[in-house]
Each structure stands twice: as C-alpha cells, then as structure tokens.
Amino acid sequence: MGLRHGKESLQGLSTGLSTGPVPHAPGWRGAAELLTAEGVQDWLAAAEGRWSAQPHAAAALAWKCYSYWLALPAVLGFAEARRVPLMTPDHVLVRFSERQPFLTVALRRPVTAVLATDPIVATDTPGLLIVEDEDELLGVLRRSLVDAHLDPMLDEVRKQARLSRRTLWGSVASGVSYALSRGFAAPPATVLDTAHRVLGALGADDLVELSVREQGGLEIKRRTCCLAFTLPTPKVCTSCCIRQ
C-alpha cells in the first residue's frame, strides 16, 4: 500500500465537492468537532431550527443528510472509477445552518485510494493511496468512512438523542442506495450489484430491500424510518417502511 498527497487525486470524481484551498468563510469547522459532545450539540441545535422538529426527529434528519453527503464522493468514486476519496474527519470540513442548505461538505488535503492497476498510478499525481484489489479498496472505504468517522459520530449522537443504531444506520443504507441509483451511470443490474457490494462492505445490506425498476434505477425500500413523518408538516418518503 503506497501513499501520496494532493487534491489532483480527485480528478474525475464529484464535481460538487470543494477541493480548493481550505475555506476561510465563517462557519466552516473540521469534521472532527462532530465527534465531540459540544460539536454534536451545536449541530443538533441547528437541525432543530432548520426543521422545527423535536430533538430526536431533528437528530434523525440531520444524520440522514450528513451521512448521505459524506458518503456520496466515496461511494460514487468506487462505483464509477474505483477511486475512493478518504472521508476521514481530518480530511473533511463541514458547515451547517438553520437555513437551506443545512449542510455543506468540503475536503482538505484529500487522499484517494486507487487500484495498483489504475493508470493514474503511473503518473506523478499526488494524493494517492495505492491498494492491490477491489476487496482491499472496499476495506479502505469502510475504515475511512465508517470506522473512523460515522461510527464514533453515531455514538455521540446517540448520547444526546433517543435513537437506535438501527434507525440511524438505516439512513446510511438508504443514502448509499440513492446515491448509486441516481449517480452511477451503468446498466440497472450493474447498479444493483454494486449497491449490494458497497452495502455489504459497510455492514448495511440488511437495512434496505433493493430491486431494479422497469424505468431504470433502483427500487429502494427502507426497513427503518427517518422520522420525517413527525415534522410539523409531515412527510413520508417514497421508500419509507411505513408505506409498506
């Protein structure tokens, strides 16, 4: 496994992901703060204001939003190019607000895991973590996204909001599935197979039921609920288990 540093390793991946100079505008903070009690408290307070929701519902919706946008570059990077930007707290900056958009994510000093056979390895591109095969690449995805970031953050969220791990992790499974269904330009059967591979690597494959839609993309049925139906203006997501 070899390592280089630099934002150029992200070429060809999520164009909506900020990879320029570290933002200096007010409100940006390192994602590591969201692994602390004070950081999660600030984040949940913003969520309560954004959705005018009870604390547990605001926490569930904030987690759904955060886990989706955090996972998106890594998940689509694996699917489209077998290139996985490491979304560890030390590489991620976040900004959140009571107004839309609730959350913005940026990368600083990005490092991207790539296969040893990737043509980019033969270049002088900095910012590469070189791995031998796809199983190792999926392992890097899990360790950087889940073990180093989402799991410790989830533990802190659950200390401050009455939510089960299954409820929160169901939103991760749903978000990964929607990211691939909407963003992965491949035949539906390939999208479905890739979704199962990624969800299996993340330990979340049992939290959604997936099938191919006739019109393309994936039919996604959650086995958990994000609690949007508890908002002052109730919403029931199309994939929600309470519709089934």
Automatic annotation (TrEMBL):
Pfam family, one: FhuF
Domain Aerobactin siderophore biosynthesis IucA/IucC-like C-terminal intervals: 63-182
Molecular function terms from GO: catalytic activity
Name this polypeptide is given: Aerobactin siderophore biosynthesis IucA/IucC-like C-terminal domain-containing protein
Organism: Dactylosporangium aurantiacum
